[in-house]
Amino acid sequence: MSDKVVLCFGDSNTWGAAPTDISRFPFSTRWPGRLSSILGSGWHVIEEGLPNRTTHFEDPLIPLRNGAEVFPMVLETHSPVDIVVVMLGTNDPKKRVGGSVANAVKGLQKIIQCALESGAKILVVAPPPMASPIKYDEFEEQVAIPYCREFTAQLGRLTNGLGIPFLDAGQVVSVSSSDGVHLDESAHDALAQAIAVAIRGE
After folding, report:
1. Quick check: 90 and 101 in contact, CB under 8 A?
2. What is the pLDDT of residue 1?
C-alpha cells in the first residue's frame, strides 16, 4: 500500500518564518516537518508554504501570492493527494492588499472546492489571530486583529455548512510576542500535534 500524501498549503507560518528575524526554521521544527515525524511511516507530508501568500488576493508588491490561483497547479504537481491541510488568511488584512473578510472566505472556498473535486479530503485550519504589538507596518493593528477573529468565525460557519473538518489554531497556539504574527518553535510543535489528531480522525 502506498503512503498517504498530505499536502500542507499555507503562508509564512507554514513555510516556517521565525518570529525574531524571519529566518526559516529547519524542517524538523516547522509544523509540516513535525507532522511528518508524528505521523511516521505510511505518510508522506509535502510542504507548500510561501511567505505573503493570500487566500485569493493579489499583492501589488509581490507577484504569485494569490493562493486560490496557484492552488490547482500545486495540487496537480503533487497528485494524487489524499489530504489537503490549508491554513491561509493572515496576509489578507495587509493595508496594501485590503481584502474583505467575506471575500477572503470566498477565496478559501475556491481552494476547498478544488481539493474536493480532485478526490482529496481537506482540513481547513484558521490561523491563530495576530496579537498586539504587531511588528510590521504593513498591518494596521486596529484592523488586522479583529479581522483575524471575524475570519475565523466565518470560516468556521463555512466549513460547518459544508460538513468538512475545521481546526481553529487559535484554540491550540498563540502567535509569538516577538512580532505578533508568526509561530515560535513550541507553537509549531503544538500545531502539528493538533493537526495529526485531526487528520487521523482521533
Report:
1. no
2. 63
